[in-house]
Design brief:
InterPro entries: Ribosomal_uL6-like (IPR000702), Ribosomal_uL6-like_a/b-dom_sf (IPR036789), Ribosomal_uL6_a/b-dom (IPR020040), Ribosomal_uL6_bac-type (IPR019906). With about 180 residues, the protein is α+β, with helices and mostly antiparallel strands. The chain is built from three helices and 13 strands, in the order ββββββαββββββαβα. The chain is elongated.
Length: about 180
């Protein structure tokens, strides 16, 4: 059995964790998150510690114990600090603009692409080609950033498209480079 499910999570001051009706609720200075869990897992709050246990010896249930332990830890971090994913747009004429809570991206198509911000997500635009996706729910921030990235995947020949900040793109040699090398 893994050790992640057995770890005790310390609840910082200013954060309230409650368990009721098959749901864990975490409230903090940045907001509130709710996560439901399966009945095979037991989650207990004792003082300023949260523990997870498992009522089954099934390996899949034991894996869920570690999963929910990590989810609760991410919820606690989210309501205190929040999460952020940064994206970069690389290409001539690629730019983003904020429209209220939503965002408009011009990414080389014949029309602009509109991206709606779901509840709990905020877009920040630095310059014209850097996008930050912020929120308190780690899973939702990652999902929205991945959807934005899928609008224009990075192509391997010139490296144009939307990528995560700091992401390395392996470029392929084009036809001209292959012909010159005699391949």
């Amino acid at each position: 059995m893994g050790r992640i499910g057995k770890r005790e999570l310390k609840i910082p001051s200013g954060v309230n964790v409650s368990v009721a009706g098959g749901q864990v609720t975490v409230k903090g200075p940045k907001g509130q998150l709710v996560q439901s869990y399966v009945p095979k897992i037991e989650i207990a709050v004792k003082g300023d510690l949260v523990t997870t246990g498992c009522r089954s010896t099934n390996p899949k249930a034991l894996a869920l114990q570690g999963l929910y332990n990590s989810i609760i830890l991410n919820m606690i971090k989210g309501v205190i600090e929040g999460y952020e994913k940064k994206l970069e747009m690389v290409g001539v004429g690629y730019r983003a603009a904020k429209e209220g809570r939503n965002m408009q991206i011009q990414i080389g198509y014949s029309h602009p692409v509109f991206v709606e911000a779901p509840a709990g997500i905020e877009f920040m635009i630095e310059g014209t080609n850097k996008i930050s996706v912020k929120g308190i729910d780690k899973q939702l921030v990652g999902e929205v950033a991945a959807k934005i990235r899928r609008i224009r995947k990075v192509e391997p020949y010139k490296g144009k498209g939307i990528r995560y900040a700091g992401e390395k793109v392996r470029k392929k040699a084009g036809k001209a480079a292959k012909a010159a090398s005699g391949a």
